[in-house]
Amino acid sequence: MARDPAARVRDRDDACPGTVDAAVGDDGLIARIRLPGGRVTGRQLRVLAACSQELGKGFVDLTVRANAQVRGLSEAGIRELGARLADAGLFPSPTHDRVRNIAASPFAGRDPDALVDADRLTAALDAALCAVPELAALPGRFQFAVDDGGLRVATRRHDVALAAVAGGVVELRLAGMATGRYADTPDAAVALAVAAARAFLRARESNGAWHVRELPGGGEGLARLLGDFAPTLPDVGTAAGNRLHDSRSSERTGPVVGVVPQADGRMAVSALVPLGRLSYTQLVTLADLLESSEVDVAGGVGVPSTRETGSGMRLRIAAWRGVVVGDIPRAAADVVAVLDAAGLPCDPDSGWLGVSACSGVGECRRASVDVRSLAREFATEQCGLGAVHFVACERACGRPARAALVVADKTADDAPQRFTVTAERPEIAEGVRTAVAELRLSGSIPPADCATGDSTRSGSNSPERHPWTTG
User: Fold this and answer.
1) 301: enclosing H helix or E strand
2) What is the rounded distance in angstroms from the CA atom of residue 310 to the CA atom of residue 87?
3) In this structure, are 107 and 226 located in the same domain?
4) 279 with 200, same domain?
5) CA proximity to 17, closest of 359, 440, 352
6) How many domains does the chain have?
7) 201 and 134 Cβ atoms separated by less than 8 Å
8) Are 130 and 100 in contact (CB under 8 A)?
9) Can you give the residue range of the structural domain that contains 192?
10) How far apart are the C-alpha atoms of 41 and 35, rounded to whole Å?
């Protein structure tokens, strides 16, 4: 039965948390810090480390959208966090905080296959979004993407994407749909994205949609509204038009792990963050790495330099819950040693590749199973099964696209754990199911009575935001 185009698909605003618009977890308040393009400096890492240690639980979680979360905050802690992050440049707009969702490759600006500089375009788009008052009304789950044509980023999950199609030329895409609207300057590209976001706000008035794909007509319907919002843009021109037919855009996708050459001859190192959780010590190690002038191959950080000069290296958070240290001016082995010693594996064959989990018992009110421990055991034993996400309820919070899903729960305190496995490919589902069964037989998976928590409690890993907010 076809859906009534006039029917509302959402009857409430989304509850996606922000920096001070906190969510309520089982362990306190949760703040989500937007990092457009995964960009973060050494100084900002140091501030995040201090905030997590002094205000939260001593760690920072990375999300599937390359953002950061601090858990276990009090109401006073949320206020203090907002002030500290604003001072560090991580909370530039209280009004637009939750809408600064911009995905980009962690190799942006350095990828040999890139057709545009996504690093600069991401920064320009971020500034433009914050400069338009009406865009503060965008849902917190509305997602932008800047795809430079190197490592592929833009998908149908991204509501508004600027996707490179030739040297210096991007196309506007809406929920993955090509619009045939092109721009060959950063200003024109940003104007297209802003126009699309404004058009979305008008289109969602009728049905409360959070995403372009939820609108009547989806991306195609939204594209028809663009003329009401898009400024008169210069034509891309004959020369740019010809370049569209000579595109060399890449089909590479993530995750990418290990040593990666940059376009400028320097190197980048991509490391995994097990279960997407950076400890205080790991955060400080990363900050030291960026702010030191010398790296010791033994796995330590060498001579500290001034904060202004630093090592010349940069860091980006990756959407596969990893970190990429770039602009390495010499042998990357030294940086690999530091990261490995910090518990951030750089091996492309690591068992941690693709393994993730929701918060689980003790942090989420819906959870009755310690799925994070289960995921750790699985990462130690599994081989070649691809992305697998462990969750403690059917909501499947934090699930990466296309990942096999393992739902672990129990119906009563004395009941055994129950596992449900789903995947796009039957052979992957069977492989994961077999691996989990073998872990149970070996005793690697703790019995159900090791898990604590009441599965009848209300709430979730993505609950309503805390009523105390600012901006």
Assistant:
1) strand 300-301
2) 20
3) yes
4) no
5) 359
6) 3
7) yes
8) yes
9) 1-6+94-252
10) 11
